[in-house]
Structure formats: structure tokens, C-alpha cells
UniProtKB/TrEMBL annotation:
The keyword Membrane applies. This is DNA polymerase III subunit delta'. SUPFAM superfamilies: P-loop containing nucleoside triphosphate hydrolases, post-AAA+ oligomerization domain-like. The gene is holB. DNA polymerase III contains a core (composed of alpha, epsilon and theta chains) that associates with a tau subunit. This core dimerizes to form the POLIII' complex. PolIII' associates with the gamma complex (composed of gamma, delta, delta', psi and chi chains) and with the beta chain to form the complete DNA polymerase III complex.
Length: 331
């Protein structure tokens, strides 16, 4: 059974409560994306549904374990497997309700898991609320969110709330080093920080082409600042997705602001320190803040506006970057 080291205590706490018949049927979890909450709930569900469970482990051999490992267990309702849509509508809730009010097919508990309770529509929220007010016997609801403030108060008031913090940076680094030996500490720490300290997402990032793409992007910016005549930065930047461009540029401007105010403290792009220092030396604090706000506004426009030439808007934003941040007269 795969339990991430930073979630073992939560796993033991919840399974112990169930074993002692003290587990609340509605569990609301607030946690960051990328720290393994879905795996935690899957492991808990597998243990609860196991027909021959031991103290902390499922047997992994009974019919229940086999079915849940194959994602076919009739008493485990993972809403992500049921609905692939952006939002969870009332029909999905009705389907689950119709099933959980019958006896469990394996004779044990019934478990319902929402990986993001914030995806429910208003109608779906209301339907779920009616169920959790008086949940069916031996039925457990796991509701996950990244922002508990967006969960309606009536659901919060009927739940036991678990706040699961991300692991500490040093613990994340140890875990990543064991699995990514080809990278040095600076590379690992950079990858971790630009992925919001989420170890699982960082691990996937390190084992994809994303790090290489980002490095090419950063090298292109540095080369442009050193020798503008020999690189077409605009063409290089426009080869990337709009979302990546904006994220990477915002992070590098933010790091330059951090360098001006508190030197190297909590800089995200640690492997690009030369570039960050160069940008910080030729721009003052107010210029960098203005451009950071401008890029954030650009992101909002590109995300929420329709019937506009998004490439034109982004191109204009890049030209501003090149002329005012990277091409300062003091360089």
C-alpha cells in the first residue's frame, strides 16, 4: 500500500477513528493540490472496505481489495471516475444517491469521494446537502477542497474538517532527491518552488520535458539581454503556450522584486540567479511592480475575455517586456 510519508499520520488517525466507531460520516478536507489527497482517500477506502483488514493495512487479496484496485468496487464512488466534466451536476448526485440508499453490494461500508467539492453546481450542492443532513447508514463521505472558504456553510457545519498542510520544504527535498538523483539540490529546489511546494506535481514535472522547455526559455531571455542582435526573442516566446509564458514571466519578475527587497530569500527560480540579478540591477522596484501587475491583468484578459485577438494582446505585452524590462537604457 502506497502512502506518502507526509500523510501517514492522517491515514492512521482516520483509520483508527473508524476502527473505534468514532469516525464522523462527513469528512471535509482542505489541502493543497499535488500532495496526494486522492491517494490518501483511496488507501483509507481500500482499508475500510477490505474483508480481512489488519491494524493499519488491507490484505490486498480479498475480493474487495481486488475490485477496488481495479477501480470496479461497487461500494466506492469516486466522482472523478463517474464524471469527467468540469462541473459536477445534479444528475451525478442523483445517481450516487440512488445507489447509496440501497444495501452495500459487498456487505460493508459505502464510501463517496469528491476530489473537489467546489466543482458542484448550485443544484448539485443542494442535493448533496439533503443527503449529508441524514446520511445513509454505514456511508462515509470524503469531501476535498483547496479553498474551504468556497464551500457553503451548511456543508461545513455538518462535517468534521481536516486541514492537511503541505510537507515542509526540507522534507519535500529529501523525498525528491531519492527519486530524482540526476538533479542537484538547486534544480530540485527550483522545481519545487515553481510548483508551489507540491512534491507529487514537482516529481512529474522533473520527469517530463517541462523543465527542459523552461530552461530553454530562460536561456533565451538571458541571451537577449546580453546580445539583443542575435536572438529573435518574440518568436521564441510565442512558441510556448500562453499560460506557461505568463507564469514563467510573472515568476521571474517577482523574483527580481524579491532580490531588490530581501536578496535571495524565497526566490523561486534559484537556478536563474544571474538573470534575476541582471533584471534587478537595471530596473527599480516601481517599474517591476507595474509590470508584474500588467502581466497579471493580461492573464485575466486572456482567460476570461472572448472575441479578442489573444495573440495580438500577448505580443504587445511581450514587446513591453522587451523594451522596458529587458532592454533598459542603463544596461
Amino acid at each position: 500500500m502506497k502512502n506518502y510519508p507526509w500523510l501517514i499520520n492522517q491515514y492512521k488517525k482516520i483509520t483508527k477513528k473508524y476502527f473505534n466507531n468514532k469516525l464522523h460520516p462527513i469528512i471535509l478536507i482542505q489541502a493543497h493540490i499535488g500532495i496526494g489527497i486522492s491517494q490518501l482517500i483511496f488507501n483509507i477506502a481500500r482499508w475500510i472496505l477490505c474483508l480481512h483488514k489488519k491494524k493499519d493495512n488491507n490484505c490486498n487479496q480479498c475480493l474487495s481489495c481486488i475490485l477496488i484496485n481495479q477501480k470496479k468496487h461497487p461500494d466506492f464512488y469516486n466522482v472523478d471516475d463517474i464524471s469527467k466534466h468540469k462541473y459536477i451536476g445534479i444528475n451525478i448526485i442523483r445517481t450516487i444517491i440512488d445507489n447509496i440508499y440501497h444495501s452495500s453490494q459487498q456487505g460493508g461500508a459505502k464510501i463517496v469521494y469528491f476530489s473537489s467539492i467546489n466543482k458542484l453546481t448550485i443544484e448539485a450542492n443542494n442535493a448533496l446537502l439533503k443527503v449529508i443532513e441524514e446520511p445513509p447508514k454505514n456511508t462515509i463521505f470524503f469531501l476535498n477542497t483547496t479553498n474551504i472558504n468556497k464551500v457553503i456553510n451548511t456543508i461545513k457545519s455538518r462535517s468534521t474538517i481536516y486541514y492537511i498542510a503541505p510537507p515542509k520544504e526540507k522534507d519535500n527535498l529529501l523525498w525528491l532527491k531519492e527519486r530524482n538523483k540526476i538533479y542537484n539540490s538547486i534544480q530540485l529546489l527550483t522545481a519545487l518552488r515553481i510548483n508551489n511546494n507540491a512534491p507529487i506535481i514537482t516529481h512529474k514535472f522533473l520527469n517530463s520535458n517541462e523543465l527542459k522547455k523552461r530552461n530553454i526559455f530562460m536561456i533565451a531571455i538571458y541571451q537577449y539581454m546580453v546580445n539583443k542582435k542575435h536572438i529573435d526573442l518574440l518568436t521564441i516566446i510565442l512558441n510556448y503556450s500562453k499560460k506557461k509564458i505568463i507564469t514563467w514571466i510573472c515568476y521571474i519578475i517577482l523574483d527580481a522584486i524579491k532580490y531588490l527587497t530581501c536578496k535571495k530569500y524565497k526566490i523561486q527560480n534559484l537556478d536563474q540567479l544571474k538573470l534575476i540579478i541582471k533584471i534587478a540591477k537595471i530596473n527599480n522596484f516601481n517599474i517591476l511592480i507595474t509590470h508584474l501587475i500588467s502581466w497579471i491583468q493580461c492573464k485575466k484578459i486572456l482567460s476570461y475575455s472572448y472575441n479578442i485577438d489573444k495573440k495580438l494582446i500577448l505580443t504587445e505585452q511581450i514587446f513591453l517586456l522587451m523594451t522596458e524590462i529587458l532592454n533598459n537604457n542603463n544596461i
